[in-house]
Amino acid sequence: MLGEYRFTGRGASEIAEGIEQGVGSGELAPGRRLPPMRELAVDLGVNPNTVAAAYRILRDRGVIETDGRRGSRIRARPATTPRDAVRLAAGPGVRDVSGGNPDLALLPPLDGALAEAARRNAARPGLYGYESVLPELEERARAGFVADGVPAGPVALASGSLDVIERALGAHLKPGDAVAVEDPGWSSLLDLVPAMGLRLLPVAVDDAGPRPAEVARALDRGARALVVTDRAQNPTGAALTAERAAALRAVLTDHPGVLVIEDDHGYANVDVPLHPLAGATGHWLMVRSTAKAYGPDLRLAVFTGDAVTLDRIRGRYRLGPGWVSRLLQYAVVHLWSTGAVDVPAVAASYGRRRNALAAALARHGVPAHGRTGMNVWIPVTDETGVTARLLQAGWAVDPGARFRVASGPGVRVTVSTLTDADIEPLAAAVAAAVRPGPGARFD
After folding, report:
1. What is the pLDDT of residue 3?
2. What is the pLDDT of residues 318-375, one digit of tens each?
3. Which of 34, 125, 208, 247 lies 20 to 30 A from 420 at CA?
4. How far is CA 309 from the centre of its chain?
5. What's the pTM value of the predicted model, to 2 decimals?
6. Could you count the other beta carbons within 10 Å of the beta carbon of residue 313?
């Protein structure tokens, strides 16, 4: 009755662990429906409440999802199977334009910054009980936020944007709560939310950011948090305009209790102005990572927000990591104070490649999106076929499935490694793979 897989366990934890092991081994495939709670309880000889508790544990761990009377099923991507796994390997002779990494030539050298960090550490070694944020780093970060119209507030650090977002969601939400997210959107965030036991509510985006009507619909459906990428949205390159930010603020006035999280990871490699939503609701957070402009391995993100949110995150951080390495902080202070990144030049370099690829695709009749950042999003009708044909043609692109919840299919191209000579051959290969037909849409 319950299929070939043998469910085991007497207590809730044992039952949950057995199912999780089945998912990990592949015996319980993604999307498989789990037995009704009463049916499994009879089979195991336990109380139905025990099975219900086991299912709650699995839901909170991001292993299963529950849809009311339709029952429970293994998530399409359990927490142990991140969206990064949905990627085609680039074999010999294949150009990989799927990585999402910055152009190494545009990253500043770190030798001087690390040497300065070592020198300062020798003069004042980092010890327990010292300040968690270097005063000069806090001062520069706060000045940068204020200059871009972000309300003045406390500044804190964590190890990357996703670290901050996870801590912010955990500070305000509980398992089962809903989070409004951009769709298509950042694959890691789309994995993180259900892994925390939260529900995804997808919000369609266009080149100006999340669509206000879609945001309003998600909030009316009970979303307790909204995550927005201000600039260089991944994968579409969208960036909030002043008009769009104003419209979103108007929507948010009717939902003052919603937590608004803004990811401005492109702050040091884009040249369009920031139009923040910060302060539109009672709880908000703005995060800026050093990854894209200074190097992905420089694991540091600065963030600010309302006092309650910052207090909750900092208090919990003290009980875990404690602080972000002051060696990294010294290095970032050096990079910022010496102007190690020529922001206009970096933005222009990525912009030239994005625009050239979009123009070449347009000449072939293929629409594309890439207003800011280092990626170009290409809507297609047959995502699997396009990625396979491009791989045969010598190009590895990112399947759109990594970035989608309910939006239409597409592929993502990272322009960081492209040269001028690459543009036309890549555009021609995409056009041949796409074979444009009716129905290809951005949303």
Report:
1. 56
2. 999 999 999 999 999 999 999 999 999 999 999 999 999 999 999 999 999 999 999 9
3. 208
4. 20
5. 0.84
6. 23
Return d(Cα 211, Cα 407) in angstroms, integer. Answer: 13
Beta bridge partner(s), residue 33:
73
Query: Contact, 414 vs 100, CB < 8 A?
Result: yes
Residue 276's pLDDT is 98
Above 80 in pLDDT, residue 436?
A: no
- pLDDT value at residue 176: 85
Alpha carbon of residue 118 to chain centroid: 32
How far apart are the C-alpha atoms of 131 and 126, rounded to whole Å?
9
Record the tokens describing residue 100, joined without a space.
Answer: 């999402």
Tokens 């702050």 belong to 267
The pair of structure tokens assigned to 33 is 């429906």
Place of tokens 């809507």: 379
**Whole-angstrom distance, CA of residue 93 vs CA of residue 393:** 10
Nearest Cα residue to 401 out of 413, 416, 412, 415? 412
**Is residue 261 within 8 Å of 336, Cβ to Cβ?**
no
pLDDT band at 86 (very low <50, low <70, confident <90, very high): low
